[in-house]
Write a structure and sequence with these properties.
Rossmann fold; Tyrosyl-Transfer RNA Synthetase; five-stranded mixed β-sheet; 13 strands; globular
Length: about 425
């Protein structure tokens, strides 16, 4: 199922013999910004030209399985690309994988992913589209559920679909091959996932499907099945996976290194400021709506001596304003600056904890500011604990989700993001 990669930086090889209008060139450039791969680029260019000539919008699909109740900004990397293409006048389809969630996506897994129940899927799906609409234009977004066509397929239809792909080609998939070689179990139902995701493209007659780099096999399956069903194969566009707050693993709620798009403005702002200076530039490229020229100019200023925190504040305010408002972003900046006062060093550990609401003693312990719960209790009783500059005297205080500057004694500080 391999296809040659077309370098996103070059468009000459993609150009067809037909003249290319400025509008199509712009659409291609917008498609390529920040993407990992656009396959086949020549076919996408032809689709853009055909759409311009006919006036018929292209059908652009993004599918997300509601495996958790909330969307984080890592998801918005592909949503931003969808919005850019939506702004060009194309029809975007936000597909909620309520059926495929019951199978469980094996992408990037070294073990079998437990399938979700219908009740879990329904509860999670209720928030997905509402949150995605903070990025997409809901008035111009088609929302679909893949149970619409997957459930009516039935057993006979599933057998016919499975006949269109071989086990040998399925085992070319990297995660399956590794698990098989290491004798890690692979359940037969996991083979159904890429088939069903590919069948979604058949049902929707997609022209382009978006996804993260870990979805490439599934996206290419859509091309294969569309050809099997006599359709013009979709193109695929993969976006890089966004590293989370730790700068190591991809953003994930399970790893607690994420920023939820419905988090409070103050928390969102503080979390963006907690990322490393190096990671900041990748976030700019994938999350900011600034032009590439603007970002490059800002990076040159930082390399020339400007404080990188200035750039990070710009990014934090842009992201916070997108999901709240410009006024909320300004207020979050003021709140952050106020919390930073009171003799707090500029360089203090950044800690992320889960479990809100959390007892203050457990927060101090989790942040590494005390060695035990007993020490936390003693320091509180002695008036040696401050949260955001306020002395804490209540040992039973529970802290809600948010960002806090915790201080123990005169020299121990930590900026704690609690979720």
């Amino acid at each position: 199922m391999s296809e040659s990669r077309t370098p996103p930086q070059k468009t000459e090889s993609a150009e067809s013999a037909a003249p290319i209008s400025d509008a199509v060139r712009e659409a291609l450039a917008i498609s390529l910004r920040g993407c990992e791969e656009l396959l086949p680029q020549a076919d996408w260019l032809k689709k853009l030209q055909k759409s311009e000539a006919s006036g018929v919008p292209l059908r652009i699909k993004l599918g997300l399985d509601p495996t958790a109740p909330d969307i984080h900004i890592g998801h918005t990397v592909v949503l931003n690309k969808m919005r850019q293409l939506q702004n060009l006048g194309h029809q975007v389809i936000f597909l909620i994988g309520d059926f495929t969630s019951m199978i469980g996506d094996p992408s990037g897994r070294n073990n079998t992913r437990p399938p979700l129940t219908k009740e879990q899927i329904k509860a999670n799906a209720e928030t997905y589209y509402r949150q995605a609409s903070l990025v997409l234009d809901p008035a111009r977004t088609e929302i679909r559920y893949n149970s619409e066509w997957s459930e009516p397929l039935g057993a006979s239809g599933m057998i016919q679909l499975a006949a269109k792909y071989t086990v040998a080609r399925m085992m070319e998939r990297d995660d399956f091959a590794k698990r098989f070689a290491s004798q890690t179990p692979i359940s037969v139902h996991e083979f159904l996932y890429p088939l069903m995701q590919g069948y979604d493209s058949v049902a929707l007659k997609a022209d382009l499907e978006l996804g993260g780099t870990d979805q490439k096999f599934n996206l290419l399956m859509g091309r294969h099945l569309q050809a099997e069903y006599g359709q013009e194969p979709q193109c695929i566009l993969t976006m890089p996976l966004l590293e989370g707050l730790d700068g190591v693993d991809k953003m994930s709620k399970s790893k607690n290194n994420y920023i939820g798009i419905t988090e409070q403005a103050n928390t969102m702002f503080a979390k963006v400021l907690s990322i490393s200076d190096e990671l900041m530039w990748k976030w700019f490229n994938l999350l900011s709506f600034k032009s590439l020229d603007e970002i490059a100019a800002l990076k040159r200023e930082v390399e020339g001596g400007r404080n990188p925190k200035d750039a990070k504040v710009m990014l934090a305010k842009e992201i916070t304003a997108r999901f709240h408002s410009a006024a909320a972003a300004d207020a979050a900046e003021a709140d952050f600056n106020n919390r930073a006062k009171g003799g707090i060093p500029d360089d203090i550990p950044e800690i992320t904890l889960s479990g809100a609401p959390l007892m203050v003693g457990k927060l101090l312990l989790g942040a590494g500011l005390v060695a035990s719960g007993g020490e936390a209790t003693r320091m509180i009783e002695q008036g040696g604990v401050k949260i955001d500059g306020a002395t804490i005297s209540d040992k039973g205080l529970k802290l809600e989700a948010g960002s806090y500057v915790a201080q123990v004694g005169k020299r121990k500080f930590a900026r704690v993001t609690l979720s």
